[in-house]
Amino acid sequence: MSNTPHGLAEEFPADADKIQALKGSDAHFAKIAEEYQRVNDQIHRAETQVEPMSDDHETELRKKRLALKDEIAAMLRAAV
User: Fold this and answer.
1) Could you state, in order of their start, the residue ranges of all structural domains in the chain?
2) Where on the tree of life does the source sit, at the highest rank (predicted)?
């Protein structure tokens, strides 16, 4: 597994400005983005053995991160 963080700026490089704008103007988007970052940080700490966890727990966190990323992608597509 890669231990590179998957921040929103890296995942959606073309939408960096839109992400910042939505964080400031849409409370739901800001909450989802914050949750994505929290889960992403937990996964990164597990991958780097800073905070080891069971494979099952890490898998669940990965699924959650993917669901959050999908929601963020949909919100970015819908944003003008």
Assistant:
1) 14-78
2) Bacteria
